[in-house]
Each structure stands twice: as C-alpha cells, then as structure tokens.
Amino acid sequence: MEFSEWYSEILEKAGIYDVRYPIKGCGIYLPYGFKIRKYTFEIIRNLLDKSGHEEVLFPLLIPENLLAKEGEHIKGFEDEVYWVTHGGKNPLDVKLALRPTSETAIYYMMKLWVKVHTDLPIKIYQIVNTFRYETKHTRPLIRLREIMTFKEAHTAHSTKEEAENQIKEAISIYKKFFDTLGIPYLISKRPEWDKFPGAEYTVAFDTIFPDGRAMQIATVHNLGQNFSRTFEIIFETPTGDKDYAYQTCYGISDRVIASIIAIHGDEKGLILPPIVAPIQIVIVPLIFKEQKDLVLNKAEEIYKRLKDKYRVYIDNRDIRPGRKFNDWEIKGVPLRIEIGPKDIENKKITLFRRDTMEKFQVDESQLENVIEKTLNNIMENIKNISWKKFENFITIMDSLDINKIKEILSQRKGIILIPFNEEIYNEKLEEKVEATILGETEYKGNKYIAIAKTY
Ligand code: PR8
C-alpha cells in the first residue's frame, strides 16, 4: 500500500486524528491521538524544564506593527499570515495577526524585562497553536494551517558565545527527545537561502518517511542580534557599556506525532514507543462460559498488580478475542496479556509483543520482571529498526553526478550525500537535481551536502 494511503487510513482506524473539519489544514485530535500527543510533549517539557527553561504563555494575536518590525522576518512570513481585521462589525484600528510564530510578540516583551546583564540569560518556551496559510499541499499533522502543537523556545544572552552554546544545548535536547522516541535524524546547517527569516543561521533535524521523502522535524536558529536591534533589547554589560542581547529560538510541532506514526508503524497498524503509548499493556480475558468469573477475576488481579506502574487497560467487551487483538494491534499497544483458564491452572501468563508479533508464556510470579524487560526491549528494537531503515535510505556519492542523483531521487529517494564543495553549493544545484538541498552536514566524520525530496 502506498504510504500516504496507509497514513490516512491509520489516522482514522487508530482513532488519532479526524481530517473532516471543514477548513483546509485543520483537524481534530481524537482522544487516543490526544493522549499520544500529551505523553510526547511531556518528554520535551521535562527536558526543557530540567535544562533551565521556563514555560510561559503569550497572546495569540500580534499587532501588525510588531509583526512587521523586523524586515527579513515579515518578508519570510507575509504570504502566510492570517489577519484579524474586525471586532464584530467594527474594523480594527490596527490589524491583528494570528501568530505564525512568536518572535515579535515575545521580543517586544523581552525589551521590557532586560535592563542589565544580570537579567540574562532568559530561556523560555511555550506550547501553543500557531497559524500559517500554507500554500503547498496540506497534510494531516505534517503541513497544517493551524499548527496545533507548536513548541517554541526563545532565549536571550549577554554574549555571542553563550548564544552559541545555547544552540548546542538545544541540539542536544532535541537529540535526546528524538532518541527517546526512536526517531532517526540527520542534522544539517540549512543553506543561506533556506534559513529562518531573520536568523543568522538555521540548524535542522530531518528524518525520512517510509516513502523516502525527507521531513523537517525540528529547527534551531541562531538569531544573533538581528531581532534585539529591531526590538531594542539592550542591556548594561559588566563594564558599564550597552549591548544588544544575543538570541536563539528553536521549535518542533505536530510533525513529531506524524513521525512516531509513520516511522514505527507497519502494515498492521501503529507500533507505539511504550513511553508515549496511551495504553502500554492491554489485558484481554479469554472468556469461556463456565469459567467466566475465574478469568475475569484473574484479569482484575493482574490489572491491580500493574496499574500503579503502567497504563493498563482491561478489554472486557463482549466480542471475539480475535477482534480485540486486531483492534489493539492497529492502535499499536506495545504489550498484550491474554488470560485464559488453562494458563490460570498452570500459573502462567501469555504475553504478546506488538513490535515482533511474538507470543510467549511467563510464570505468573515473574510477570513484573518480564514486563519491565520486554518494554525496554521493545523500545530498543523499534529504535534499531528505524535507524537501520534510515541508514538504508542514505546514499553517499563520491562526486557530483546530476543524472545519478536524479535517478536515485526518482526511485528509492531518501537522502543523498555528496562531498561538500563551496563552488556547487548554491540554489542552482537545486534546480539541476530537481530536489531540495537540506544543507551541509557531517556524516561519519566527513562533510557533505545533503539533498532530498522533501515534504
Ligand atoms: C520557527 N520560531 O518558527 P520554523 N505544519 C506543521 N509543522 C510545521 C509547519 C506546518 N505548517 N511549519 C513548520 N512546522 C522558530 C523556531 C519559534 C521556534 C514545524 O521555526 O518555522 C517544522 O518541524 O522552522 C519546523 O521545524 C518547526 O515547526 C519550527 O518552525
């Protein structure tokens, strides 16, 4: 089955996201999808909180004069901004933008907060919805017009070096985040023509979807003093001079959820990393008439043993076990416990793991140990598999061969790495290879230009 068809089907069948809302690029997180989102963004929240970031919440509306203040920035976004022009029937004096991102809102306030070097650094983030009138083909959770889960971090520092270190910290936070989810990535410095509007440079994380196309899943921007000059974020240095703050920002979005689905899933449905699975263990009682109570009591007993440590659910529906198995396989529940009269008699429990589709028995007394080990093992396994697939999608070439690049990109796609060479590193190369230059990257110790078909 073609990837995009599989993807649409799984969003619906697993109860993740409903695309039928009557606005293009907007959809609904259903309860199961919402929970995946919640656990996923809890991971990034923890990573940010632990590294000295503080969560804030800014207004959705940005007055036109603020949004337009930084020239490059507005140039980059003007075609994508939604405008609020009226309050009821009255035209507004100042048009209000639905934030496409929040630099201008946040930096307006930073000016008021920063006076001396001791007010710095500031490291804040918010997880909010943003709006971009995307003209490219919209796709659920991938290219949204209402980006429902936009995690944006913004920092300000008193030296250039500190801002540079902040970029390194942001990259290491995102690495940990994607490693925790088993999502493989290539990190590259975006070319000049593709950097974030208003940034000095942009570093991006790209993964590869099963159809071989690259997907930008995170970006880290060094803003230098561009915005601080425009917004007059000025502080007094230790020697009594004045300087503009050095700034960075970095963001991820719902694309992370799309990646979890796309990268780990298989033809049967989702395979969720246990850490974000809304249900980590499903208990399916195998009910036969005479022994119904015995089986249900046992299921309840096992549930009680596990519920404080795991997200466990007993599926008591009055339908055939086969259908239940199928439902939970589509939903990617990592571990299933089957409880039947024979097992109870033998003091055994039957486990099934979604990633390998293996069924095996354990002694009842060993249940907790085995579950802990198995869940860890599932995570390791899906991570290894996804990195292997990713690496199979990487083609290293020892020189620039336009025809060969085109051929690979039209067939198996993936990311092509060609040796870095300043002379060929320009927008013309994109036209020649009819693909996107992701940027300069280091791969296994060498410097390359990364090229791919992108989303
Ligand atoms: C910034 N400012 O805005 P960025 N649908 C889904 N995800 C998207 C979309 C979309 N239409 N557009 C972008 N993303 C900076 C950093 C605050 C935070 C995702 O950067 O424009 C992409 O994964 O690069 C992108 O890397 C991330 O949001 C941040 O957006």
Structure description:
The protein has 455 residues and is α+β, with helices and mostly antiparallel strands. Helices cover 36% and strands 29% of the residues. It contains 14 helices and 23 strands. β5 and β6 form a beta hairpin. The radius of gyration is 25 Å and the shape is globular. The relative contact order is 0.11. The model has no long low-confidence stretch (mean pLDDT 97). The structure holds ligand PR8. The site of ligand PR8 has 21 residues, from β8, β11 and β14.
Q: What's the pLDDT, averaged over the residues?
A: 97
Q: What's the helix count? A: 14
From the spread of the alpha carbons, the general shape counts as globular
Radius of gyration: 25 Å
- Helical percentage: 25-40%
> Looking across the biggest beta sheet, what order are the strands in?
3-7-8-14-11-10-9
Ligands in the structure? Answer: ligand PR8
How far do the termini sit from each other? 19 Å
Unreliable parts: none
SS elements, strand count: 23
Name the descriptors.
alpha+beta, binds ligand PR8, five-stranded mixed sheet, 23 strands
Secondary structure layout:
Layout: H1 3-13, E1 17-18, E2 28-29, H2 31-50, E3 54-55, E4 61-63, H3 64-67, H4 71-77, E5 82-87, E6 90-98, H5 103-113, E7 122-131, E8 146-157, H6 160-181, E9 186-189, E10 201-208, E11 214-224, H7 226-230, E12 234-236, E13 242-244, E14 246-252, H8 255-264, E15 281-285, H9 292-306, E16 312-314, H10 321-330, E17 335-339, H11 341-346, E18 348-353, E19 358-363, H12 367-392, E20 394-396, H13 402-410, E21 415-419, H14 427-433, E22 436-443, E23 446-452
